[in-house]
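Contributing new records

If you add data, match the layout below exactly. Sequence lines come first and carry their own label; structure lines follow with theirs. Keep one chain per record. Anything else will be rejected by the validation script.
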Amino acid sequence: MTPTLVRQHPPHAGARPRVDLRARARDWSEIQERMLVPLIEAVYERLDVGAATRLLGLGCGSGLALLMAASRGASITGVDTSADRLDLARQRLLPDDREAPARAETRIVDGPVRAAARPETGGYNVVTAFEPIGCRSGDAEGLGELLAEATPLAERGAAVVLAGWGPPERCTTASVLRVATEPAEPLRSAWRPAHRDDLEEVAQRAGLRPDGSGRVACPFGYADVDSAVRGLKSTGLFDAALSATDQVQVDKELTEALHPYRRPDGTVWMPNIFRYLIARTG
């Protein structure tokens, strides 16, 4: 869900402002990242993540999943392409305050995945990619590229965790994504419904052996519509919409799409089911 810069219109249409990446990273950290906590907890429980775990988090964002692993005693390394999210991860995991609890064997890597190689003998025994695939064209290919870089850093038989959106009929947010992107014709190829075997196909192409899967309820709950709009946009899934139209239009379409999920007290509640696949390196 790494944010990208909004493309500009051709000169005759006038330039559009760039996305405020720092504000978006903050929205991700404060609003959206926690939505996947049930998924992360289910995976860590199933893998018995603990003191013996050497974990590499791909697309670690602002570090919440890493923090959850560290609290179980795991050694953690996180990588991401967003410098702004990594700054927040460092603040969360590597505080300057000397009175804060020390987090042993914690690394935040700003660079390519290969820069996360462990200097000591022994590779990672858990690799996680918690950014769900299955709602954006090309996301499976992007995950495959990450895995091609990451799996050589893992030991033989290491667990590799992939995550994806569940069936569209079980994911309220998927319908919001679709409705909000319909007005812009170029987006018809940007959004797609999740397929049942998305994760298995990625694992197969990466040379990984499936070793179990599961489904987890991850409802998206927001204090109000404004928080929902900010949180959803922080995922980067609406960058194509921002390019094809503008922020005002995207906010309008999102607000309208969210209307059926607004409760009488003003909160927004959208039930979702997410999938995870545990695969093993050869």
